[in-house]
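Lab meeting tomorrow. Please check the following:
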Amino acid sequence: MPSLLDIPPEIRFQILELVLCHIRALPPDPATILQERLELHGALYQSWKYGPQHKLFEPNGYATNSHPLLLTSRQLRAETQSALHHLPAKRSYRLDVMLVHEWELWPTWLSVPALWTRLDSVLTTIRICGAKDRSGRSEFCIGDCSGPPIMWCFYSLLERFLFYGPVGERKLGSEHRNMTINSLTLDVVSSPEIDATMTEPAPTYSEWYRSREGNEDNDSASKIIMRADWLVNFLRDWIGSLLCMSYHTARWGKILYERIGTVRLCADGVLIKEINLAQRLADLRHNDASETFGNIRPRENRVAHFWQWKTKTLVKRRKAGLPVIDPEDSELVGL
């Protein structure tokens, strides 16, 4: 019986390319079928604890598309490695994230050709599944000084990926893989049920967001499924707050500058906002101890710490192949 190795090499290469570029089907909406999901342990997060506790993964993890091919034979291993080098999509991953009842995230890796640490792109589709939880609570509400809890779900998902890549359970203290992404796209997809919950007149983003500030169903806006552009606005605002590297946010914003080239925010495939982190970093300045790195003590060290961080981040970005715009800052150390 003929095997894969018996067919002409050029046909076999096309087959390998199709396997490596395969994209899994989207997992079903949680409202349509019961799914087993679990929290992954083993990571040390900077995120507030709500985030790591409210993102649920598939129980069996995800094997890369290339993994079985690399274990088959020496010839197929060599040809797979060659095919990976010539992929038309280069080093790209695809991720699906379901936002479930404004309560938690269900991420699923759809395409991971191989384990790389430097990625050209990660396309993340965010699907809105249902309105706020039946209990009446939305995790978009602002509780304490930490900001909306759902923000930390998104942040911890990105943080885990930048630390370890698209892998499953890790042993506590596992070595970081130091992932970098040249272009991160967050494409929010509207729920097919949105029209059934929309009221007349349709609320604005501000009205919808105000309805999430408390935990009571006090108006019609609190019962509707959010629009895709509303979630884009929310993500834009909170990513922007992290990138300000302020007294409250510098601790969490720094990894975005260190590991990402550009963030693209889309609604149903339409680009809404593109954030050029190279330009943002070049323009970023703090010379007041009350403005940045509030976690650094004593306060007299904060400004120096900021400029040392900025200097090191420019070096890290160059080393990782991320875009860099040389700033004209006399405070930079050793550049």
User: Anything to note?
Assistant: The chain is about 35% helix and 15% strand.
